[in-house]
Sequence to fold (263 residues):
Amino acid sequence: MFETIAYTVADGVARVELNRPDRMNAISIQMFKDLVAAGEAIKADNSVRVAILSGSNGNFCAGLDMENFTSGMLDDGFAPRTHGITNLYQQVAWVWHELEVPVLAVVEGACLGGGLQIISGADMRYVSPKSKLSIRETYWGLVPDMAGTALWGEFVRGDILRELTYTARIFSGVEAEQYGFVTKLCDDPLAEALAVADAIVNKSPHTIRACKRLLNNKDRLSAEEALLAESIEQDALAGTPNQMEAVMANMEKRAPNFVDVEG
Fold:
């Protein structure tokens, strides 16, 4: 189905693995297309309740594959919007932010440049202490332009972003946690992400989607709008089959049997 990624769905979990191990999963033009297409596939699959992003062979992503790019990228410039509010190169990170289901990123090894921007679209990031990360674009005389500047402000302090952007220096997973990029440092980040995914899958999918809508919009709404949004979401959930199943499963101390969101 895809040339540069491995994509599977099982038991409510979509797995998206960057799969160019000979290039440390560096992003080619085809990978841009494949990652966006995978995001769209998840949007269309109502059986998916959580998604996990990872990389093959011990690396997440070494950034852009500079040997793979040609001047054809620049023919139309970057300003035209091709995917709603984004272009293709921004959508590769933004698509995970706009998905209705939670997205967990797993980081081992290299996570440079575009790789760091891709994981920034995830809800949570589980990272090996030995990982190497960087806002790398100024090293190549460019600016971060894959939605990073629209996403990082939620979890990284402004002066830290400026220092990392201006210098393009490489920093460790341990430093990344200190800066705010990391949800949790893990010796086995994939195992941690799978455990968190299992917990999410066993919550009502309607409830989880409602929570993501509220959290995605929290910085875009006034206090009045945010309070009303909470109440609207609660009205839509209260007394529905999945909400009642959550109550009954907890009272009966059994695994819940939720129905998927309808298309």
